[in-house]
Structure formats: C-alpha cells, structure tokens
Amino acid sequence: MALIEIAGLEVVFAARGEAVRAVRGIDLSVEPRESFGLVGESGSGKSTVLRALCGLAPVSAGRALIDGRAPPALGRIGSRDRAFARRVQMVFQDPYGSLHPRHTVDRVLSEPLLVHGLGGRRERDRRVEAALQDVGLDASFRFRYPHQLSGGQRQRVAVARALMLEPSVLLLDEPTSALDASVQAEVLNLLSRLREERGLTFLMVSHDFAVIDHMCDRLAVMQQGRIVEVLDREALARGAVREDYTRALLAASQAHAPVQ
Ligand SMILES: Nc1ncnc2c1ncn2[C@@H]1O[C@H](COP(=O)(O)OP(=O)(O)OP(=O)(O)O)[C@@H](O)[C@H]1O
C-alpha cells in the first residue's frame, strides 16, 4: 500500500478577497522507502503539496494522506499531532530561519524528546550525542548557537532534529538550495545515507533536476497547480520526456553545475 496517497487534491487560498488555486486536482502515490521528487517552475504549487500533507495548507477538496491518515487540523495541539509528528517531519530550505537563534544545538535536538516525554535526562543526552554523530557533527557542536555554524552544519542540525522522533517520512522542501554546490552535495549524500539506513520515505521539492536526479526514484513535474507528467529516473536519464514544459525545465536546470 502507498505510504503517501494524494487523490484529487485541491488547495485554494484566500488572498486579499481573491481565491488562489495553488493546487488544482492532483493524484500521487509514494511507496514505502521510495524517494519521490516534485519539480516545477516557481509558483507551480510544489511547496503547497508538502504543506497540505502536514496540515500547514488547507485541503479544499480531495485528500492528502500519510499512512492512511490525514494531518491534524491547523492550530489544534493534541495527541493526534504528537502521533503525526512521530511519523512525519518536514525539512525546510532555510535552516537559519527554522532554527531558533537563541537555542543551542543541544536544546534544538532535546526539545522534540522533551515535548513527547521521551527518555530521562541521561537517555536524552545519549540520543542528542548519537543524533549529532549520525549527521557527521562531533560533540563540540552540541553547545553552539545557530550563528556559530556554517550553512551546511545548520542544515545537518535541522536534519538531525527532524530525525529525533524517528519518523518514517521526511517532507523535504528545497533542503539544499540555500547552500553552495559542494556543501549541497554533502548534505544530499547525508540524506541518501540516512534514508538507506533507516528505510525512510522521502517526498522532496526542488526546482533543480540535478538534485532530483541524484536523490529520487521517480518525480512529478508540476505546472500551475497540476502534474503534467511523472517520470522515473531511468526515463529522465534517457531524456524520455513527453512535455515541452519539462524539456524547458530540464534545459534550464542543466545550465547549472551538476550535483557530484
Ligand atoms: N498562504 C498562502 N496564501 C495565498 N497564496 C499562497 C499561499 N501559499 C502559496 N500561495 C500561492 O500558491 C501558489 C503556489 O505556491 P507554492 O509556494 O506552492 O509554489 P512552489 O512551486 O513551491 O514555488 P517556489 O518554487 O517559488 O517555492 C503561488 O501562486 C503562491 O503565491
């Protein structure tokens, strides 16, 4: 059975009295342990799909389910949210924005455990140290603040935080596009390794085909809130693309340096 199931999904935002149809009826299934990419031009609705899956955007019609369940309603904190957070986590583009500037790495990583009442002090310490090690940061990083880290190190901390509750699904929104090319490759390789080791399922947004090609088994191409085609990696490698829109995106992406 698919782990992520999206059917007839529509998301409509009300912006200054006008309805913005960000997602216009999409269907998508992602299997357990699969890594699936969403590509498309800016504003095509990629991030909105991820947000609908975790309850941060309204599902106006259709459904967006993970493991057969809809996300908890916006603004309601309860046991369903806690159960959901233990299955699904999101990683954003900008680790600087998503890490609290006045919280140490230790606090950032312990907080999910505290909120979920997991482990005593010793157990939390052990898990924070293990989490740092898992993302390739040594113990000296534990009491640093975000501004004392490089962009790549910050994103490693954001990945470690996302994994603290041992979720099965990661929703990744342009997780490396704020990083330099060489650092980008390191973080992508880290994500691939963690996925392999932990049997994670990824749904990943990028505007960059090289990133998607590096990371994903299949991808959907989005345009104006719709999916125009779904490709697997092999079709992408052969250039077996049906839509001119996809070809244009591919050409624009290939103008940039490929991921190593
Ligand atoms: N909260 C919101 N309120 C109103 N409109 C929104 C909201 N969030 C997104 N939109 C609109 O929905 C459309 C899709 O946005 P979305 O962020 O999903 O696109 P995207 O493909 O992820 O783009 P990018 O690659 O630039 O991040 C855009 O027209 C955007 O302006």
Task: Report on the architecture of this protein.
This is Peptide/nickel transport system ATP-binding protein. Keywords: ATP-binding, Nucleotide-binding, Transport. InterPro entries: AAA+_ATPase, ABC_transp_ATP-bind, ABC_transporter-like_ATP-bd, ABC_transporter-like_CS, P-loop_NTPase. This protein has 260 residues and is α/β, with parallel strands linked by helices. It has one domain (34-57, 76-255): Rossmann fold, CATH 3.40.50.300. The protein is 38% helix and 25% strand. The protein is built from 10 helices and 9 strands. It has a 6-stranded mixed sheet, with helices on both faces. A hairpin with a 2-residue loop joins β1 (4-15) and β2 (18-30). The model has no long low-confidence stretch (mean pLDDT 91). Bound molecules: adenosine-5'-triphosphate.
Which structural category do the helix and sheet elements fall into?
A: alpha/beta
H/E element sequence:
EEEHEHEHHHHEHEHEEHH
Level of helix content? 25-40%
Query: Strand order across the biggest sheet?
Result: 5-6-7-3-8-9
Topology, number of strands:
9
Q: What general form does the structure show?
A: globular
Secondary structure blueprint with pairings:
Elements: E1 4-15, E2 18-30, E3 35-40, H1 46-53, E4 61-66, H2 79-85, E5 88-91, H3 95-98, H4 105-115, H5 121-134, H6 151-163, E6 169-173, H7 181-198, E7 201-205, H8 209-215, E8 218-223, E9 226-232, H9 233-238, H10 244-254
Parallel strand pairs: 3-7, 3-8, 5-6, 6-7
Antiparallel strand pairs: 1-2, 1-4, 8-9
Helix pairs in contact: 4-5, 6-7
Bound molecules: adenosine-5'-triphosphate.
